[in-house]
Amino acid sequence: MKVLVIGSGGREFAICRKLKASALIDEVYCAPGNPGMERIGVHSVGIQENNFEALAAFASQYAITWTMVGPEDALADGIVDYFTSNGLKIIGPDKQAAQLESSKDFALNFMQKFHIPTAQHQTCTSMEEVDAVLAQTSYPTVIKEDGLAGGKGVFIVENQKEALKVLATLKVSPQTPVIFEEYLDGPEYSIFVLLNQKSFQILPVAQDHKKIFDHDRGPNTGGMGAYSPVPQFDQAAFDRTVKEIVEPTINGIHTMGFNYTGIIYIGIMMTANGPKVIEYNVRLGDPETQVVLPRIKNDFGKLLTECVDQEVLDPIEVDPQAYVNVVLAAKGYPQNYVKGQLLPNFEIQSRGMIDYANVAVDDQERLIGNGGRILSVIGIGDSIREAQANAYEILSNHPVSQTYYRHDIANRAVQK
To answer: How far apart are CA 149 and CA 340, in angstroms?
Structure first.
C-alpha cells in the first residue's frame, strides 16, 4: 500500500512515523510535509493542504490506497467531499460533519439535541445581543469565537472590563457569532475516538497543556505539551465519560446521518458534577497525537484501512509505557516569533524521539526553526516520572537559542 497524509506539523509527523511502522504500507507521502520527515523515510510532496485538485490528482497518479487528513482547515473546507466525489478513499469527516469543530454553535446545538453534558451557553450574532448577555453575566465567564481559531479562540475573562477588551477584537455578526459559556472548573482530558459506520474504538487518553507558561499562566496556545497515560483519570471516571459523553456522541453522529469516517476528539472537563464536553475536534490533536499514537500496539495502517473500508475495527491494544511530549517553541510564540534557529542533531537512542513540525533547511541542508512550535521532544519511560525526566534531559543536553519550553509538563500526573 501507498498512503498520503495531509498536513505539515508535529501531528502529521507522528502519524507518518506510525504508518511507516505498518507491515501493510510500503510508502508514506505527506503533503506538504516538512523537511524533518525525510529523516524517517517519508516523502514530502510540495502541494498545499488546501489545493484539493492537485492533491486528488496526486492520489490518482500515484495510486494512493487512502489519504489521512491531519489539519482541521482542510476538513472544514470539504476535502473529504472532494476526494469522495472523485472516487478516492479518504479518512476524515465530510464538510457537514466537520462543523462539529468549525462551528462551536453547531457543536453546542448537537450536544443539546443528544443530551450530552456541556457548559450552559448563549450564542450572540449582534452587539445588541452581546450587551444583553453582559448585563446578566456572572464572572469568570468564557468567550469563544464561533469558527476555527487554531486553539487560540477561547478567552476566560474575570470581569466586564476584560470581557469588553476581548469583544473589541471580535466582529460579532450572523456570519461570525460569539458564544458566551459558563465557566467550568476541573481538570481537562483528551479523548480520541476512531469511528466509521460500523463501530468505534477509543484511543489512549492524554492530557494537554494549552497555556504558554509554567503553572498554566498566560494565553492559550496550540498546545505546549502532553502526556499519556493519565493516572489521575481513573477507570470510574473513564467509564462514566464513555457512558455519558462518548456513546451519546457516536450515537448522535449516526442518528444525524453524518458521513463520518475517522477521528473525533472530545475535550472533556471533569467537574464536581461529572464530565462535561469543552469542545469537539474532528481530527487528531497536536500535541497529544505525539503521545497517543506510540501507545497503540496495533498495526495503525491496518486500523485505518479497516476504518476507511467500513469494517468492524479491531480492539485497541495499549502499550503500558509512558510518553511525555514537551514542545520546543520559538521565542515570541504565539505572536511574533523568531525563525531560523539552528537545530542540533539529537542523540537520544531509546529514551525518546523527536517529532519535527515547523522546520526548514538552510543552504547547508541543516534543519532550522521555521515557525511557532518547532518540534516535540517525546520522553519515553516505564512511568510518567521517568518519561518526563528523559524528555527534559534531552532538552537540557541539546539547547537551542531563541526558543523556550514549559518546565512542568506532566507534573499533574507526577504529583498525583
So the answer is: 25
Element (H, E) at 5: strand 2-7
Distance, CA of 227 to CA of 268 (rounded, Å): 16
User: Given the C-alpha cell 493519565, which residue does it identify?
Assistant: 230
Sequence-distant (6+) residues with CB within 8 A of 273 are: 117
How many domains, the chain? 4
**3 state SS of 219:** strand
What's residue 135's pLDDT? 85
111 falls within a domain? no
Which grid coordinates belong to 163? 470581557
- Residue 399 in grid coordinates: 539547547
Nearest to 272 by CA among 142, 143, 183: 183
| Residue ranges in 99-182 assigned as alpha helix (H) | 99-102, 104-113, 127-134, 160-167
Sign of the CA dihedral running 71, 288, 307, 112: negative
Domain with residue 162: its CATH number is 3.30.1490.20
Tell me whether residue 11 is in a domain.
Answer: yes
253's CB contacts (< 8 A; 6+ apart) are 97, 195, 260, 264
Q: State how far the Cα of 115 lies from the Cα of 297, in Å rounded to an integer.
A: 34
Q: Which residue stretches of the chain have pLDDT < 70?
A: 149-152, 416
Q: Where are the beta strands (DSSP E) in 113-208?
A: 121-124, 141-145, 154-157, 178-182, 188-195, 200-202, 207-208
Phi, psi of 157 (to 5 degrees): -115, 145
**Is residue 57 domain-resident?**
yes
Supply the range of the domain harboring residue 266.
Answer: 186-309
| Structure confidence at residue 151 (pLDDT) | 59
Q: How far is CA 154 from CA 136, 211, 397, in A?
A: 20, 11, 35
Both 298 and 195 in a single domain? yes
Nearest to 72 by CA among 282, 259, 266, 356: 282
Q: Residue 267, Cβ neighbours under 10 Å: how many?
A: 18
Mean pLDDT of the chain: 94
**Which three-class secondary structure state does DSSP give residue 17?**
helix
d(CA 354, CA 391): 10
- Please state the pTM of the whole predicted model: 0.94
